[in-house]
Amino acid sequence: MNIVITGANRGIGLELAKEYKNLNWNVIGTSRNPLSSTTLQEEIGMENILPLDISNEESIDSFCKEIKITTNSKIDILINNAGARGERGLIEIPKQTVMIDTINTNAIGPTILLKTLKSSLANAKIAIITSGMGSILKTTSGDLSYRISKAAVNMAGRNLHMEFKRQNSIILLVHPGWVQTDMGGDNADITVEQSAKGIIEVISHASKDNSGSFVNYKGETIPW
Ligand SMILES: NC(=O)c1ccc[n+]([C@@H]2O[C@H](COP(=O)([O-])OP(=O)(O)OC[C@H]3O[C@@H](n4cnc5c(N)ncnc54)[C@H](OP(=O)(O)O)[C@@H]3O)[C@@H](O)[C@H]2O)c1
């Protein structure tokens, strides 16, 4: 069984790669720099790491061609985990370049990736790692680029759910919790192990009945 995890070289993605490997999945992880992803190499083997910069259309295109060969066009689970944080907090005027990069990485890239891989994702489970910070109802001020990007990817996931359900793909938008990673920081609520185990459980229970929903790593629904 093939699982593809983007941004698998560190943080939540690395832990997901380790855990799925322990569950005997054929894990294909992506990294912007496979050669320097030494921990991921130790976990899944260099041959299972493919280069992907999800903010770059050419990189997505090359990756999709490669992954179709590697998996014989049969992906069972895809976790789009790669993500960028953008500017932090409340700042006067966010930089346009930062906003574009964040939205590109977190929303546009994943959308193009899933559309390009559509035929290989028939009957697959797809988890888009989003954030509670993408909830419009629960928003507070600041972190504009990140919040906009995650609200956007929520719309993309919901939209693609409507399209992909015709080929029995299941799509979930999953908030991983506030997690102790480079992005989440040391004061975050939970460890990567807790987050990854929760996400794996949520994916294993995903069905066509809850496809298209926005949930956290405990499977609880988050308001849009
Ligand atoms: N940690 C939290 O508290 C938290 C909370 C809510 C949601 N999330 C979401 O969870 C996911 C994983 O976060 P994390 O905490 O594990 O973050 P992290 O430790 O900062 O890791 C981010 C991962 O994404 C990759 N990445 C960034 N930009 C990329 C690009 N353009 N193309 C390909 N890969 C790229 C990074 O690769 P490089 O090593 O090359 O930079 C790295 O592998 C993200 O989508 C994040 O938004 C995290």
Write structural notes for this entry:
With 224 residues, the chain is of the alpha/beta class. It has one domain (2-216): Rossmann fold (3-Layer(aba) Sandwich). 40% of the residues lie in helices and 14% in strands. The chain has six helices and seven strands. The protein has helices spanning 11-22, 38-44, 57-71, 96-116, 144-164, 192-205, and strands at 2-5, 26-31, 49-51, 77-80, 125-129, 170-175, 214-216. The chain has a seven-stranded parallel β-sheet, sandwiched between helices. α4 (96-116) packs parallel to α5 (144-164). The model has no long low-confidence stretch (mean pLDDT 98). The structure holds NADP nicotinamide-adenine-dinucleotide phosphate.
The portion of residues assigned to helices is: 40-55%
Query: What's the order of the H and E elements?
Result: EHEHEHEHEHEHE
Give the termini separation: 32 Å
Characterize the overall form. globular
Supply Rg. 16 Å
CATH architecture: 3-Layer(aba) Sandwich
As laid out across the biggest beta sheet, the strand order is: 3-2-1-4-5-6-7
Average pLDDT works out at 98
The assigned structural class equals alpha/beta
Supply the CATH superfamily name. Answer: NAD(P)-binding Rossmann-like Domain
**CATH class descriptor name:** Alpha Beta
Give the domain tally: 1
- Tally of DSSP β-strands: 7
Q: Tell me about the largest β-sheet.
A: 7 strands, parallel
Strand proportion, as a percent range, falls in 5-15%
CATH topology: the name is Rossmann fold
Number of helical regions: 6
Q: Unreliable runs, pLDDT <50, ≥5 residues?
A: none
Distinct small molecules: NADP nicotinamide-adenine-dinucleotide phosphate
